Amino acid sequence: MADTSTHEQFDPLATGGMRRRITSKGIVYGALSVFALIYIAPLLIILLNTLRPLEDIVRTGFIALPDAETMTLRYWGEAWGSFCIGGTCEGVSRFYKNSLLMTIPATILSTMIGLLNGYILSKWRFRYDGLIFGLITLGVFMPQQMTLLPWAFVLGKLGLSNTIAGLVFVHTVQGISFTTLFCRNYFVSIPDDLIKAARIDGAGFWRIFRRIILPLSPPIVIVTVIWQFTGIWNEFLFGTVFTSGGNQPITSAIVAFSGSGTGERHYNIEAAAVIMAALPPLFIYIAGGKYFVRGLTQGAVK
Amino acid sequence: MQAHTPNSQTSQASLGQRLANLTPQMVLAPTIFLAFAYVVGFSIWTIWISLSTSTLLPDPTYQGFEEYAKLWGSKRWTVAYQNLFVFGALYVVGSLAAGTVLAVLIDQRVKFEAVWRTIYLYPLAISFIVTGTVWRWIFHPNTGVERALHDMGWLAAKFDWITDRDLALYVVVITGMWHASGFAMALILAGLRSVDGDLVKAAQIDGASMPRIYRKVVLPTIWPIFIAVTVVLLQFAIKTYDLVVALTQGGPGVATTVPAIVVYDLMFQRGQIAQGAAAAVMILVALAFVLVPYALWSAWQSRKEGARHG
Amino acid sequence: MKTKTTRALRSTGAAIAALSLGASFAHAEPKTNMMHQWAQGSEAAAIAKLGEMFEAAGGTWEQTAISGHTSNTLAKLRSDVVAGNAPAAVQLKGPEIAEWNATGATANLDATAAEQGWDDVVAPELLTVMKPTGNWVAAPMNIHRVNWLYSSREILDDLGIDVPKTWAEFNAACDQIVAAGKTCIAHGAADWSDTTTFDSVVYGMDQDLYRKAFQEADLEALRSQGMIDAFAQLRKMIGYMDDGINGRSWEESMTMTMTGEAAFFLMGDWTVASANLAGFSEDTDYYCTQTPVDWGGNGFILNSDSVVFFKQNDPDYVEGQKLLAEIIMSPEFQATFNVAKGSIPARTDVDLSVGGFTKCQQQGLEDLKASVSEGSLVRSMAHNMTVLQKYRGAMMEVITEFVADDSISPEEAANQLADAVELQM
Amino acid sequence: MSSLTIKDLRKSYGEVEVLTDINLEADSGEFIALVGPSGCGKSTLLSIIAGLESVTSGEVKIEDRLVNNDAPKDRDIAMVFQSYALYPTMTVRENMTFGMECRNIPKAEQKDTVARVADLLQIGPLLDRKPSQLSGGQRQRVAMGRALVRDPKLFLFDEPLSNLDAKLRIEMRSEIKKLHNRVGKTTVYVTHDQVEAMTLASRIAVMFKGVLQQYDTPKEIYERPRNKFVAGFMGSPTMNFLNAKVVQSDAGFGVTIDGGDGTILPLPADHTANLAAGQSVIFGVRPEHFNPVHAHRGDTSARMKVLVDMVEPTGAETILMTTVAGQDVVASVEPDDAPKEGETIELAINMSKVCLFDPSTELRLSA
User: Fold this and answer.
1) B294 CB within 8 Å of a chain A CB
2) Which has the least CB within 10 A, A186, C170, C422, D262?
3) Contacts of D260 (CB under 8 A, 6+ apart)
4) Which segments constitute the ABC transporter domain (chain D) (predicted)?
């Protein structure tokens, strides 16, 4: 007993020492592979279609291998730099910056606020703190369509209409719900004694946050950053409605592909653009996936 | 003797002390204000607008519950509302089931675990719009699997769920599962790894088979994970909009329409803001169906917990 | 030369503006930001042309192209108005112009209109739409014809069929085509495209019914035997379509007809622009004719894109609105824009025989004139030119459900149509 | 001068009163143990002294200064937690300097102090490790070290040894005692282990259900418990409580066990104040105050016949589980004196050590 300490790192992903075996490894790998194929297929289909000329796609549909003679990387270039979107023929490159300018600050801000809120709501109990937490958490469930007009009004009053700053604001406020939920549930597992010890040591509110809580936060920071980054990056409705022209994020440009636009559809270029738009969140998931799961089980599952 | 030592300290705390005590509340205040404005303010605004005469633009003139009556008189809305529950249930249960199967498979100490995990988890990084679009390509008979099978010479092949009004909703469910089951898998896998090994050993000594051990011993012990995943997935289910728009646009007919689409359409396309707000309020009501029992349950749970420790 | 005219026009406009608004505005730099939903293809190119002309006339051009659904455009418009910064210029149409006008948010273009004599050159049937209360609040960009029937030359020639003129002929042709193993009607199901087809069906069977039902939302008309017959015809036509209509885009359907996979395609004249852009040509790959009418004569279901101007505080943008209105109404822009978009100019004084207009477009103008003189011209319900969005939306729901669900009988559909509209009253 | 004074202290959470009328004072340099079963309020009381919990009414004074509304940091106290509460992301050294850093003590002084305390506790080699790299005993030392560097007016210990295994616990216990002797600071020590309280404390406060039952020296508490609860809580195995009646005979007062054979157990004269013949009492005897008659140790004048149900040798002593007249009696005897299970033997009782309690008030009857 003496050696189990509350702050020991628990790694749920470290392979446990227990013996569990389904009789045949063959069945396991077979099943895993079948599933993997289903999961990979869509990505593969988009990827392959970025290489195929339009006539090829129109002739044989989306599920087909590129023809060795006609396959080309040209569409990537077009999607990046010269495809016409919203009347400007500069590809998706110009929206990339907007998406980054929107996503990064909103992610950082909502994460920081979430950390503070989580810290307060888990470690500084006061009257109605449970109610306040419940209220903040409810924000997670608010349908976006419902909030469009009120947000528009608020942004107008703040003079943030049609600005990326406005989008950052909206995403930050909406994000607070998630980050607070995650962080609070995570911090609950940090022993209260640490806070008491620090208070007796003479540390105040901020010093405890900086010296005790923050150094313990990386797992949950990774979770909220991944969650917020992908969520905000992939969101299109606010981007479409609250910004215009050259201020729009990349998803608002991509979203045209699902709509019934007129004119010929350049599926190959669109596929390339879709991949480009999906790269940052994909990268973040692949790079941080392990920590994401670890942090999530410590935070969300309480 | 020591009873009345003159004391410079009054029984009141000093101003600085009291301010220091209030720091947490003061730091929290802006967030509370924002959250309050966002959750409560926006909800009340929506409720009010749903009772107003608003059409093209919000207009606070009171009208009553007429728009609710109109909303519930429309077939599209009843289908959408019903879809929300059918889709929500199937999507959550399906994702949990698929996630459990995947987690148990990966739990068999397979090689390259990180690779498998990443493969199953990556869809979560893909936006709903892209998810819907790609799966539309795959499901649509003219461009997807059916077409590919025809091209391969199997002309009798038929895979047209997406165009079948009775099956299209299941296409949405499957696509949703593709997106979310990796998330369920990841959390359940982490849960499996946290299960006490002695438990499994004990069950093995009792002579239980591995599938039985999972079903009867391991999975029941990690039920809180299932609850947590359910809450996160429900949140996706209730807000589902982009996925359906990209995948089926609510069709065939209105077969796959979901409430969020109706809200958006009424509020913005049709200039019936009051009715759209009424639909949004109904989404909140649907939410209450889920959240109120959950809140009561967890309150009951924590009271039970408290009773045990106290 | 044209540029010179425009400049001259502009300076006059500016002078008038300076007179009416006070000297302090005299140095206003015309600026505009136009919100529209033409994000891609030929339409985007057409709008880009507008931008070029605006800049050539000395203005600063910005545009906000909202991709995807019209609801996205309208969502943005509403948000901007609620936020208190209404866009300077927005692509809006039909009864919405009147609705927005009623909110008092729109700007008055009477001065510019009077100066340029819009009343004399704009097609008369557009006037009520552009001047809902007698004042100009919108500038029409074009006239679309909704009731076009595109026929695959290959199939018609192979089977020796003439382009059908009535619905009976149409059905007979379809029976023959289906018997020959081809798809008769290319279609991509969506509420607006289903309704587009139904527009033509109702109109072609009984134009008075069309007016009563779709322009006046008359409940009795919606429930009438004529409407039941129209639904029965639509049901028949669904039988002539293949199984893949759900989830197919209209461009894919168009391609089916152009490549001889399907015989007919019912769609508006924007098809012409897309088909030509995709390399198909009139009379070689396809024929364009009006959709069948059972009452003989020329029919025209009209749709028009227009730009509405919202009140602005910034004098630069006020100035920009005037300039933009002038340019939109200029014969040069009307010609360029409509060549690209497949439609015909909103001005009746543009010569279609020059400047790249296709035969279909020229045909369209002729039919329009004939239709006006015959009194058969109607506006399109499917394309939001007649009733309020709430009625149109309710109708579209019923129609698209009818297309998707075989079990709904024409009688039920007509009743549902009337009920759905009544509910919104 | 009293170092800690608690006067008429009450603490309630809403309706629930968790501490009632606590009065307690500690002289400078004293070692006070707060004992009681879990939920008795001892940890709450400690938290109140530390300033981590607020006071509902009453006074808390440290060195005669009212500190009711002072923040923990202003009370000049140090505390060792049950969980140690070592900051997991800091090294041992940082853990120890954190408090000084908060008080802006110069770096050089911090360094000296850490060196001195590390020396004292023999944790010098551990200074650059993280808590997760330490064993339980080492963590315990570090936790104490963190308190020691502060040189506070008051040391607070919250069950500091309960997470250690038995052997280490005894080691650390004597170490704490040595440390206290050396440092000489007033200490308040919360424990649920009465042995710790007995061995360490100069005075013990026994608490139960939020009420201070008795506050006295270990010897007094053990020998003259104020009530049945204190008597039962202190001592292991616990004191035997037998239902009995007071009888008066020529030889003076005595007791008879209810349902027994009527043997009179004579009470020493100094135990008989306030007694009346026929009165029902609870007759309390500690296990070690029994002796088998056959062993012939000490006075065997008061005897009781018991049936031995079970014999549990522990090495140093042997515990007998017996019954007399349907009531359980536990006796602790010399291993050599142990009878066999199933035997009926006679136990002699050291009557000068017994206690009598009122069955209704449970207060000890005789002075």
Assistant:
1) no
2) D262
3) D304, D324, D325
4) 4-234
Answer yes or no: are the C-beta atoms of C257 and C186 closer than 8 Å.
yes
| Closest by CA position to B79, among listed B140, B169, B161, B162 | B169
Q: Which residues of A touch B41 (CB under 8 A)?
A: 150
Select the residue of A148, A256, A265 nearest C251 (Cβ to Cβ).
A265
pLDDT at residue A11 greater than cutoff 50: no
Helix ranges (H only) for A124-191 are 129-138, 144-158, 164-187
C2-141+305-350, what's its fold?
D-Maltodextrin-Binding Protein; domain 2 (3.40.190)
Question: Where in chain A are the domains?
Answer: 25-72, 93-299
pLDDT greater than 60 at residue C8: no
Other Cβ atoms within 10 Å of A188 Cβ, number: 15
**CATH no., domain A93-299:** 1.10.3720.10
Is residue C11 very low, low, confident or very high in pLDDT (cuts 50, 70, 90)? very low
Domain parsing of chain C, residue ranges: 2-141+305-350, 145-302+360-423
Express each pLDDT in D187-206 by its tens digit: 999 998 888 999 999 999 99
CB A60 within 8 A of CB A45: no
Task: Give the number of B-D residue pairs with CB atoms closer than 8 Å.
Answer: 30
Which C-chain residues 80-109 have CB contacts (< 8 A) with chain A? 80, 82-85, 87
Given pLDDT bands bounded at 50, 70 and 90, which one contains residue A213?
A: very high
Pick the range with the lowest mean pLDDT from A251-260, C3-12, C167-176. C3-12
- Which amino acid, residue C81? V
Interchain pair B13, D65: CB under 8 A: no
Neighbours of chain D (3+ CB pairs under 8 A): A, B
Q: How many interface pairs between A and C have CB atoms less than 8 angstroms apart?
A: 123
Tell me the two tokens of residue A161: 């209409």
Fold match flag (C2-141+305-350 vs C145-302+360-423)? yes
C388 touching chain B per CB within 8 A: yes
Query: Do the Cβ atoms of B271 and C96 come within 8 Å?
Result: yes
**Could you tell me which residues are beta bridge partners of residue D320?**
D311, D331
Query: Among B19, B113, B133, B185, which would you mutate to test the A interface (most chain A Cβ atoms within 10 Å of its Cβ)?
Result: B133
Tokens at B44, concatenated: 């009340």
3-class state of residue C181 by DSSP: coil
Span B22-56, pLDDT tens digits: 788 888 888 888 888 888 899 999 999 999 988 88
Do the chains C and D touch each other, judged by at least 3 C-beta pairs below 8 angstroms?
Answer: no
Q: What is the pTM of this model?
A: 0.82
Read off the pLDDT of each residue in B78-107 and give the average, rounded to a whole number.
93
Best mutation target, B59, B61, B158, B163, to test chain C (most C CBs within 10 A): B163
Q: Please give the CATH superfamily to which domain B75-309 belongs.
A: MetI-like (1.10.3720.10)
> What's the CATH architecture for C145-302+360-423?
3-Layer(aba) Sandwich (3.40)
Chain A's closest residue to C67, CA to CA, is A256
Q: What is the pLDDT of residues D88-124, one digit of tens each?
A: 999 999 999 998 888 888 999 999 999 999 988 889 8
